Amino acid sequence: MGSLIQNVNEEIYRNSKELYQIGESALTPLIEAILPHDWSKIDNKNQMRLLTGVLSLINDINEEACQKTAKTIIEKGCTRAVKQCLNSITAFTLNDYTLYNKYGINIYILNELNDINVIENKLDKWLSIVPEKDLQEIDRIYVVPYHEDYSYSGTYTPILSYITLVWDTENNQSFFWKWAESFMVEQTLYHELGHHKHNHTFGQDNEQEDEADEYAREFMKLNHPFIAFFVKLLKLFGIKKRKKQDD
């Protein structure tokens, strides 16, 4: 359990994945790792990392056990920061998601999104052209609604192999904007799959981003050949235009 408090993402996520795979049998040692601690005082950041990591893992394995553990910690007494952390983790419940499995991947779509059936159909279509080997070990895909605080359109979590897609399905969108939003989400999905395909690690890296972009381009060309052709024409026109200007 000691390795969970190390400030190394890879180590934390590896331990989390192994314990999650153990399942219910891991609950008792996980709970015992945090319950006896005095959470009315926090001496260092590693303690909060431990609490967040372990309780999140408990919630992934068994939401009821997570609720009971958090309630016990609050009743025993804890800092305001700890209470906020506990409430944030326990607020996440799979009851808020529509769950289905496709190509061995658990797909979670937040229920507050509009047109869930449309989202399912699009995801099924987009994933259908991806080689099976590229989808292996993808554990889950989360689809969540757009929020102005988000600075990303998608994320990939290495080791755990989670993908998150941000999807804006406001009813007042025009047909064009709905199409454009769908196009961007599709591109984001293939980009995040590219990170998985190439076994990319944590952190922003230009080479990793370029590889993921190239992976996405290949599948966007397959699904949208007319757009690829149009872009190619524009590039050719641009080259000819520059040549004329050079002359």
How would you describe this structure to a colleague?
The chain has 247 residues and is an alpha/beta fold. The chain has two domains: 2-92, no CATH class; 95-229, Neutral Protease, domain 2 (Orthogonal Bundle). Helix content is 58%, strand content 11%. The protein contains ten helices and five strands. The protein has helices spanning 9-22, 27-34, 45-61, 63-76, 80-90, 116-128, 132-135, 175-197, 206-223, 225-246; strands at residues 97-102, 105-110, 140-145, 154-157, 162-167. It has a five-stranded mixed beta sheet with strand order 1-2-3-5-4, with helices on one face. Strand 1 and strand 2 form a beta hairpin. Helix 1 runs parallel beside helix 3 (45-61), helix 2 (27-34) runs antiparallel to helix 3 (45-61) and helix 9 (206-223) crosses helix 10. The radius of gyration is 22 Å and the shape is elongated. The N and C termini lie far apart (69 Å). Mean pLDDT is 84; it is low at 1-8 and 239-247.
In short:
This protein is of the alpha/beta class and 247 residues long. The protein has helices at 9-22, 27-34, 45-61, 63-76, 80-90, 116-128, 132-135, 175-197, 206-223, 225-246, and strands at 97-102, 105-110, 140-145, 154-157, 162-167.
Question: What topology does this entry show?
Answer:
Elements: H1 9-22, H2 27-34, H3 45-61, H4 63-76, H5 80-90, E1 97-102, E2 105-110, H6 116-128, H7 132-135, E3 140-145, E4 154-157, E5 162-167, H8 175-197, H9 206-223, H10 225-246
Parallel strand pairs: 2-3, 3-5
Antiparallel strand pairs: 1-2, 4-5
Helix pairs in contact: 1-3, 2-3, 3-4, 3-5, 4-5, 8-9, 9-10
